[in-house]
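User: I've been going back and forth on whether these two constructs are worth ordering. Before I decide, could you fold them both?

Assistant: Sure. I'll take them in the order you sent them. The first construct and its structure tokens:
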Amino acid sequence: MTPTFLILVLCFATTQGRRPQGLRKHVHEFEIPQAQTKQKNSTKIWSGLNLKGFSWKDCGTSSSLVNIQSLSLSPDPLAFPGPVNVAAEFVVKQSLVAPLKGQLKVYKKIFGTYIEIPCVDNVGSCTYDDLCSKLAPIQGQCPDSLKKIGIDCSCPIAANSYNLGKTEFDVSASVIPGGDYHIIADITMNGAQATCIDMYISVA
């Protein structure tokens, strides 16, 4: 996963543990008409899930503002709820300033076909006009390891080479319903691509 996007998302996600039902409820409600879910499944509780599969590729171009040199996630397998450890080396070629526009496409496999999950209440396949504004309320909760390398979970993110040692983000609730997902995330700045990630995730 592109480190810039991952950092933005995980910083934001650390403050969302109080509302874990949002994504689960949205995905489940979307699945019912799509998959004609039986009534007995409506009470299923998503807990004790593991990340069974994870693959990613950089869908950016040579002119993207961020170059990724290395990335690792641990432990293996990841378990939700539980810690997600991230380590990464990446280069930001140009200072990333507001507004950073994020476009997120989220697909869930239903009966063998990936179906796009629509955007409802900023959850699903959404466009975020200013990711920086989403981070503003959480600056006081930014992990020390990020602040140590000059990233304080806010914009701007200075042009520099970054080496992020293993950093723990606590996923305090099982925010992702089980299943197979295809996620494409693209961040742009003033029309120029900052970073892009295309990933497949399996949670069970």
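The second construct, handled the same way:
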Amino acid sequence: MEELTEVITAAEFHPSQCNWFVYSSSKGSIRLCDMRDRALCDAHAKIYEEVEDPSARSFFSEIIASVSDIKFSHNGRYLLTRDYLTVKVWDLNMENRPIETYAVHDHLRTKLCALYENDSIFDKFECGWSGDDKHILTGSYHNLFRTYARGSPDAKTWEARPQEPHSILRTRRVCAGANARAQRARRGVGGESNDDELAADSLDFTRKILHTAWHPKENIIALAATNNLYIFSDK
């Protein structure tokens, strides 16, 4: 095990082409294999990989690039991948870069050293498609999860927490250090606090949503948070 430099982190079969499957690696690459080519799939048909900017490389680059989950879209044309800080959409016909990249918790980019020390940087988050492939779902810390409307800046953050059945779920917003302090200063000492705002420094990294699922036909999502299962519906 000590000699391994790259491991397989996730795998998925194509929803309609039974001979195609993809697998991802700890180095951030995704390989598409065709079982019609050979019985032993030790060579890939396509490899999806984004070239890293050398000037942005750091000690944590390979760790945060590791793909923790991969999903085919229901129509079979796209791939959805999740790494530590982002979720990406790949077109099967375009191997050199993703067609969409969404930041999940970019406010943690300055905290990677602390996350490495407490092993949180090795957490493996899942991702998922809505039934119509137009929305994306993934989890984060503090029991937060995010939904994205593809092709638009409409990204929402929600918190899974105990509440009355059929009550309306409210969005949350995470404010990075300086932002949070500025907003508190604007409210003043006697100003009212906004329950929908969370300071990045106050996030609880022991509460995390690693496992997510979206119903293939209905607007229903399921989330696993520690020892709790949350189910949300738009009805």
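Notes on the second construct follow. DSSP finds three helices and 17 strands in the chain. The chain has one domain: 8-233.
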